[in-house]
Amino acid sequence: MSDQFKALLLTRENGDVEHHIRRLSIDDLPEGDVMVAVKYSSLNYKDCLAVAGRGNIVRHYPMVPGVDLTGVVLSSDSPDFQPGDKVLLTGWGVGERYWGGYTQQARLKSEWLIPLPEELGDLQAMAIGSAGLTAMLCVMALEDQGVTPEQGTILVTGASGGVGGIAVALLAGLGYPVAAVTGNREHDDYLSQLGATEIINRSELEKPARPLEKQRWAGAVDTVGGKVLSRLLAEMKYGGTVAATGLTGGAELNTTVMPFILRAIRLVGVEVTTCPIPLRKTAWMRLSRELSDNHLEQIYKIISLEEVPQFAENLLAGQIHGRVVVDLKL
Fold first, then answer.
1. What residues contact residue 1 under an 8 Å CB cut-off, 6+ apart?
2. Are 137 and 261 part of one and the same domain?
3. What is the pLDDT of residue 46?
4. What is the reported pLDDT for 76?
5. Within a domain: residue 278?
6. Domain range spanning residue 173?
7. Does one domain contain both 165 and 104?
């Protein structure tokens, strides 16, 4: 273990959040029973808000953000992990309440970690990250409710983002016809390459909806919420299911009971931060098998730790599509 290592540290002075690249030592790290040499992290929406000092994501300062990481165990007081083990972490409040992945070394709680699936490399896992795990859980939620490719098109909102893009690729790979919703038509080619058979302007779904609209979708993965979710509920086919997992368009939901009692639709919430370990392992195993390397290569780009603040601003401004991997070795 190196005596010193690089990390991105957030501090707050007089109400203003500042970010710094700092050299830390092991003594600076919080408590935990597993030391990990971090290879990669990723840039998620929550990370962008944290780095930009928005949204009250971070609970206390100083904080090392980064809700995801992959790496190799350096030392362990847990019987579940040994030095040399490759591990993966997503969620559990890491990067919000606990120091996260934007550091070359991390001391973590063993109950947050799972073994890296053998079929996945460190880089691949962070190209997937929390966003991909969320997407897979949404797909599994639709399957659990009996939604099949034969029933019709699945709508994916926020398709240019990390969760939406991976959901499009997974659903298309499983044989579902997929309609991708985006607010930026410059991403049409990207979404088509991921497998979308139809691309829809977000503005279409932001129009006020009547209690029931024309039946269009057999299922949906919604990462937006707000007006968009209100309208797509009114457009669901009889017996359809919406897997809801985001609120970039707002937390309020203005709807009626009509789609539920007249079309027997279902609205299923998908949560990733404290998702139980057995379900995580199942989802990650499926991701390792069902998301092709070709799709992953289209989805992600690699940046250094020093580039995180600028990319966070760009992502919040809607200027980046897909996934951003942070290489802690750079």
1. 26, 35, 37, 74, 75, 105
2. yes
3. 92
4. 98
5. no
6. 130-269
7. no
**Cβ neighbours of 258 (radius 10 Å):** 14
- Average pLDDT of the residues of the chain: 95
Alpha-helical runs (H) found in 277-326: 277-290, 293-299, 308-316
Cβ-proximal residues to 103 (8 Å cutoff; 6+ apart), any chain: 5, 6, 7, 8, 24, 38, 64, 66, 328
**Could you tell me the CATH number of the domain that includes residue 31?**
3.90.180.10
Answer whether residue 152 is part of any domain.
yes
pLDDT value for 55: 85
Residue that is written with structure tokens 């990669």 in the block: 40
Is the model's pLDDT at 15 over the cut of 90? no
Three-state SS string over 167-220 comes to HHHHHHHCCCCEEEEECCHHHHHHHHHHCCCEEEEHHHHCCCCCCCCCCCEEEE
- 51 falls within a domain: yes
Q: Is 291 a member of any domain?
A: no
Identify the CA nearest to 103 among candidates 329, 309, 310: 329
Query: How many residues are listed for the chain in this entry?
Result: 330
Do 197 and 96 belong together in one domain?
no
Cβ-based neighbours of 243, under 8 Å, separated by 6 or more = 137, 138, 139, 141, 142, 219, 220, 221, 222, 268, 269, 270
Are residue 91 and residue 136 in the same domain, yes or no? Answer: no
Token pair of 222, please?
A: 């919604």
Same structural domain, 84 and 144: no
| Maximum pairwise Cα distance, the chain | 64
Which tokens is 211 given? 């209690």
Write the pLDDT tens digit of every residue in 28-74.
999 999 999 999 999 999 999 999 999 889 989 999 999 999 999 99
How many domains are contained in the chain?
2
* Residue type, position 17, single letter: V
Cβ-based neighbours of 189, under 8 Å, separated by 6 or more: none
CA atoms within 13 Å, Cβ hemisphere of 3: 0
What percent of the chain has pLDDT above 90? 87
